[in-house]
Amino acid sequence: MAQHEYxxxxxxxxxxLRRLSEGEQLNKESLAQEFNVSTKTIQRDFNExxxxxFPIHKVxxxxxxxxxxxxxxxxxxxxxxxxxxxxxxxxxxxAQFASRTENLLGKLTDFSPSAFYTRVSFEDVSRLTALFDIxxxxxxxxxxxxxxxxHKYRYVKxxxxxxxxxxxxLLAEDVIHGKAKTFHIARMSNVQATKEHFEKDLSLQxxxxxxxxxxxxxDVQPFTVTLEVASSIRRFILDHPLAPTQRVVEEKxxxxxxxxxxxxxxxxxxxxxxxxxPHIRVLSPKSLQESVINQVKLFLEKQILS
Length: 306
Prior knowledge:
Helix content is 40%, strand content 25%.
């Protein structure tokens, strides 16, 4: 099974889960038509994955999420589904390999929910299935794509479909302006794949390895951020790193951590820093430290004025 097929399965399952969690009742016929798969595939999605992992039950010919249950109260459901898909795929490599894989995956999934949780939500892109198919084929075939984004014509070399903070983006190189950018897929219209081929820049694809979110800038040399993390939140920062390149520089006796990582723009991290205030402090660079202080001052001024 090719990598993009795994992605399709995950996208389908996540979309179904999100809609169920929002109170919708779904039937296999409409879902099969929406995702261009057989009704047997949808039936298997529910019987072998969704019903096993989540409190979903039948209402007539439809499925419904148990009243009062939300995805925010469970584990990070994307991780659970990925592990389940890996377990299924492993059976194709023989009984011995599957047995060892199931044992290892069992250890990974045997954990208690954290006292804190991050809200995991995905924007509704169910109406954009055809658009995703166009982009996926264009990326696999290395052909240029043209579309309108924020009322501007774009002509790009598509590289990857990525998800940052629940929103779907296309990472592409703008041929007209000669810059790599991320385009919010939901704001794209009149999307057409051309017959013009291009050679992919592998370094551009690798730039995603250090990207924190959609604010990253592939044209900027990454710089190091150093933060002091209070002991009260250290386990959350260790369990869920603020950036792919996060590393521990120092551990103090009182449990305080000094961490460092690379970013390309202040906007990649400034909102996350604000979320963890006052348990986190910027040590360097000074420019980021000043930006955070100015944001806090502005917030206080607005609070006082109100």
